[in-house]
């Protein structure tokens, strides 16, 4: 990435995160040039990018300002989850979401599906097709339980970008990130154990806790800085917490990237209380800023972080190829992986290894990041236009999920049922809480390129919300 | 299958199972014609097949006899496992087996790999390749958590052959049979629970019990009729057994097909003590006799049988497509499947559905059954020729695994280590017991067509056994 784009993204994210407010004067070209060690013209180019995206406006002789008209929607409030470990509910609601088959008739804004129509995926399809034509051992047999070696090598290289120095032997390939999380949880915890989670939190990992008989302790989470370290510390003092499970980079569903300093502080806390961290990084490669955020794992010195990820968000979920870097828990996670599914299908592993090795992944990621950032802005605009006044939305720094908070007494479960007749679906907020909180919230997917159909779907959701709000009044 | 082949197989299996002994007179042509309602010439044709395979010899004017010279190797003894629930060990030994990558340099007789070189698999590879070329929703997205609907329909049709009347909605697609077993066990049991298993038993299912903190109670198992119902009844009276987990058709590792009457009796026993049965049928479609054996599930009226299977043995393990018919436990198994891996990769499901729908599966199975039956006979011959006198071997009625029992004090763990220098590997017997029994046994794969290389490998194993036996003397 060129220097000016990099700088534009940095400034842009500061503006978006409210570091500079509407009407504020932005740093001078000279100051930025000194601060970042780049030329004046690089800074000028960066400002032109910001101008184009409406984040900065020049005033003659006074430099650049954040446009006063820039209407930044309010952020969701920090959640107030139950302050004790709870049994997890919401399976029925999750089931409603995952029972749906992909169908063209419905505008599915509920599921965590990336856009898979990009031409940058073509080489992957070619590899898959070529491999499938071969009736050969490596593709059709059980592979080594650790997974295809060349793929593990490629992932180890990839992990350098997030600050991790790992080798192929530190990694286990899994059947999606789901299995990585599940095997990690099973390796660390027994029924009755307490796991601290960010809140709102990914429902899949919480259902895993539920299925295995563990309790979740939801920690309040800030929509910009992530899990509250203060609340977490209190919880660690009060409860025998076995592990901390969270998504610190491009969080699902809130979209924040936890600042590096807080990631380090979280690790220190985990060390102090001697608990393990299960770090879900499945959206991490889709951070809009370059370079991508560091993982907590990258600061880990005593192997207590189990880094879980997959190609489900960066390539395609149907490939079912994920991985885990389980640190000191490797042997135990390997056993848990084996008893879950045996070894993972080798064909997609081989195809992805080829895709990475041939250098196709980076251009693909670049393209998707740009697309997702654009469609995020478009989706936020639509939500502001079509949803009732007072609607709060997250400000995703990566990935393709928007978190929307409606009036406190609104029920998105009822909304989603009503939306069925419009062939539109969203993810209801309550599945992101162990105890069914966030009923007035919803999650929307903005992965596809913006189209009139999607705008229309958002408009319908907004109309339905207005209609239902009027009924309850 | 034509009538005479059918009849020849039936008679052949009776001879092989010792129902008719060497020197015995076989039923007359007329008697068989009446008994089976077929023509005299059909019976004569069947006898000619038996003549060719050395199982019957004509005596002028006296009819057919079992050749007196027919040397049937002794069967393995019925095991004497520990008669109480035990914690499962042997993970290190299993790991040795599953850590191996498929490599041409080594003659791998240890793993449960089918022969994947048959031309009857070509249409499957074509479908896979064509599907992979498409960058489309159904192949790359998350599918419905139940699995691809057309595949479930095809499997339901397939299950008719084993006597099951099920619909697509009774089935959940899983990531191999391994996940079917794992999700079933997790759905039924909690840590500390006792599960009764056949002994020897499939190590993968036992390791699942281990990983989930359950105890195994090994039930003595006859190499021809299967799990001892008498011992099982005693165990059910004595212990709070939660489930019975077994492979009654083409058992792994013993190869027997439990007679129908005993399958029914087992179910009655399970009803009486109100326990669930986890029935692993993964080799069931590879039974040498036609029609294939009925499953215990086919007699199940109150939904207590969870039928687990996959295409790993009948097509290829690398596809990782299995299924479970969980009866009354469907909702719970679905939750356990979801928390393990999410939904299963759709591409191989779609390809297999196409393969089944186009009628390619039956001819493929026919071919493989014939091949496996032939190579079974060849492998038994080699073992009898090259292994020490007194070696006992199983008489597999399907699948492609041979169980070999050596002198009581022989250690196959040491043997396998010594075989490394010969580039040959077997599966050690101890992994098939929860408590590490059967150290003097080994399992050998006879799936590939017989070749001089395989004969050579068997010869080397025999030599090494002789050498090690001499050392211990």
Automatic annotation (TrEMBL), chains A, B:
Residues 1-69 form the HTH gntR-type domain. Transmembrane segments: none annotated. InterPro entries: Aminotransferase_I/II_large (IPR004839), HTH_trans_reg/aminotransferase (IPR051446), PyrdxlP-dep_Trfase (IPR015424), PyrdxlP-dep_Trfase_major (IPR015421), PyrdxlP-dep_Trfase_small (IPR015422), Tscrpt_reg_HTH_GntR (IPR000524), WH-like_DNA-bd_sf (IPR036388), WH_DNA-bd_sf (IPR036390). CDD domains: AAT_like, WHTH_GntR. GO terms for molecular function: DNA binding; DNA-binding transcription factor activity; pyridoxal phosphate binding; transaminase activity. Keywords: Aminotransferase, DNA-binding, Pyridoxal phosphate, Transcription, Transcription regulation, Transferase. It holds the Pfam family Aminotran_1_2. The keyword Ion transport does not apply. The keyword Transferase applies. PANTHER family: HTH-TYPE TRANSCRIPTIONAL REGULATORY PROTEIN GABR, TRANSCRIPTIONAL REGULATORY PROTEIN. In the C-terminal section; belongs to the class-I pyridoxal-phosphate-dependent aminotransferase family. This is GntR family transcriptional regulator. It comes from Pseudomonas cichorii.
């Amino acid at each position: 990435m060129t220097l000016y784009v990099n700088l534009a993204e940095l400034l842009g994210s500061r503006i978006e995160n409210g570091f500079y407010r509407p009407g504020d004067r932005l740093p001078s070209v000279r100051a930025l040039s000194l601060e970042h060690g780049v030329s004046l013209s690089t800074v000028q180019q960066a400002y032109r990018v910001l101008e184009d995206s409406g984040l900065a406006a020049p005033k003659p002789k006074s430099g650049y300002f954040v446009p006063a008209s820039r209407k930044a929607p309010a952020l969701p409030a920090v959640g107030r989850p139950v302050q004790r470990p709870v049994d997890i509910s919401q399976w029925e609601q999750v089931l409603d979401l995952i029972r749906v088959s992909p169908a063209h008739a419905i505008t599915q804004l509920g599921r965590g599906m990336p856009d898979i129509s990009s031409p940058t995926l073509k080489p992957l399809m070619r590899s898959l097709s070529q491999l499938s034509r071969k009736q050969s051992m490596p593709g059709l047999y059980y592979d080594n339980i650790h997974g295809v070696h060349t793929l593990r090598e490629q992932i180890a290289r990839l992990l350098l970008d997030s600050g991790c120095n790992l080798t192929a032997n530190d990694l286990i390939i899994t059947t999606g990130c789901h299995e990585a999380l599940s095997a990690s949880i099973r390796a660390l915890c027994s029924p009755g154990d307490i796991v601290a989670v960010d809140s709102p939190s990914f429902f899949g990992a919480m259902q895993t806790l539920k299925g295995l008989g563990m309790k979740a302790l939801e920690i309040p989470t800030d929509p910009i800085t992530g899990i509250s370290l203060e609340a977490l510390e209190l919880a660690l003092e009060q409860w025998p917490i076995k592990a901390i499970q969270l998504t610190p980079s491009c969080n699902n569903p809130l979209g924040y990237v936890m600042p590096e300093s807080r990631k380090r502080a979280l690790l220190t806390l985990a060390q102090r209380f001697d608990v393990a961290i299960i770090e879900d990084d499945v959206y991490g490669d889709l951070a809009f800023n370059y370079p991508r955020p560091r993982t907590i794992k990258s600061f880990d010195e005593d192997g207590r972080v189990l880094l879980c990820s997959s190609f489900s968000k960066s390539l395609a979920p149907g490939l079912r190829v994920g991985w885990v870097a389980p640190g000191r828990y490797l042997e135990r996670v390997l056993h848990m992986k084996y008893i879950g599914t045996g070894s993972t299908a080798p064909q997609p592993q081989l195809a992805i290894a080829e895709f990475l090795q041939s250098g196709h992944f980076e251009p693909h990621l670049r393209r998707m990041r740009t697309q997702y950032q654009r469609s995020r802005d478009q989706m936020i605009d639509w939500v502001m236009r079509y949803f009732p006044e007072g609607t709060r939305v997250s400000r995703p720094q990566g990935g393709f999920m928007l978190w929307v908070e409606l009036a406190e007494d609104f029920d998105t479960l009822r909304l989603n049922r009503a939306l069925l007749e419009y062939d539109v679906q969203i993810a209801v907020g309550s599945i992101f809480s162990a105890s069914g909180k966030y009923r007035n919230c919803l999650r929307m997917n903005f992965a596809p390129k913006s189209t009139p159909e999607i705008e229309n779907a958002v408009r319908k959701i907004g109309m339905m919300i207005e209609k239902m709000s009027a009924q309850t009044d």
